[in-house]
Write a structure and sequence with these properties.
heterodimer; A: seven-stranded mixed β-sheet; 0% helix; globular; B: mainly beta; five-stranded antiparallel β-sheet; 11 strands
């Protein structure tokens, strides 16, 4: 059974704190993603990694950074948390299909609901 | 303009009813289309891929209309367990491993 786990289901932090969100997948997937989900806005891509130590900015990278030192682990870092970063954070992974892109299903972790006070 | 747009609903239907809803996508060059399901306070999970010729998976039927750039999902004989938010998802052209997600259509099936 495929599995993506995230370090915390709920997290409460104060403005200005440094926040680490961890994600681990056990499917040997090349690609990993961090999204945030807000009502009415859907999932928005923060950062993407297609290999160890490789990363790409997504649609809303400002205020975030990421780290991928091992294939199975992708960390999201909020250098200085702000109240507008209160959100649901979802990690996902997918494999790189050979010879095409017929199915790049993404598997999601259970999410971390972060509240910044 | 958003890449993927959906009617947020909610669609409130009785058990056994048929419910259908659409989403539109902005990039005519998109190639891969999906419906994901998200239960309340849970993560999204793939419900089904959408193929050009249309496809069925049990009580669920997905259709793709490339000319009008919309995707539809139809649920027949609705069950209480079908209550969820359905996310329309499209691959990003020129950036293939990334997906664009709609904000979701909420369906509530009542007894």
């Amino acid at each position: 059974d495929v599995k993506v786990t995230q370090s915390s289901r709920y997290l409460v932090k104060r403005t200005g704190e440094k926040v680490f969100l961890e994600c681990v997948q056990d499917m040997d997937h090349e690609n990993m993603f961090w999204y945030r989900q807000d009502p009415g806005l859907g999932l928005r891509l923060i950062y993407f990694s297609y290999d160890v130590k490789m990363k790409e900015k997504g649609d809303i990278p400002e205020g975030y950074s990421v780290s991928r030192e091992k294939k199975e682990r992708f960390s999201l870092i909020l250098e200085s948390a702000s109240t507008n970063q209160t959100s649901m954070y979802l990690c996902a992974s997918s494999f790189t299909p050979q010879g095409g892109h017929t199915n790049n299903e993404q598997f999601f972790g259970p999410g971390t609901r972060l509240t910044v006070l | 303009r958003k890449e993927v747009e959906q009617d947020p609903g909610p669609f409130n239907v009785p058990e056994g009813a048929t419910v259908a809803f659409n989403c539109t996508y902005s990039n005519s060059a998109s190639q891969s289309f999906f419906w994901y399901r998200q239960d309340c306070r849970k993560e999204p999970k793939l419900l089904m891929s959408v193929y050009s010729s249309g496809n069925e998976d049990g009580r669920f039927t997905a259709q793709l209309n490339r000319a009008s750039q919309y995707i539809s999902l139809l649920i027949r004989d609705s069950k209480l367990s079908d209550s969820a938010t359905y996310l329309c998802v499209v691959n990003r052209v020129w950036d293939d491993y990334k997906l664009s997600f709609g904000a979701g259509t909420t369906v509530t099936v009542r007894a």
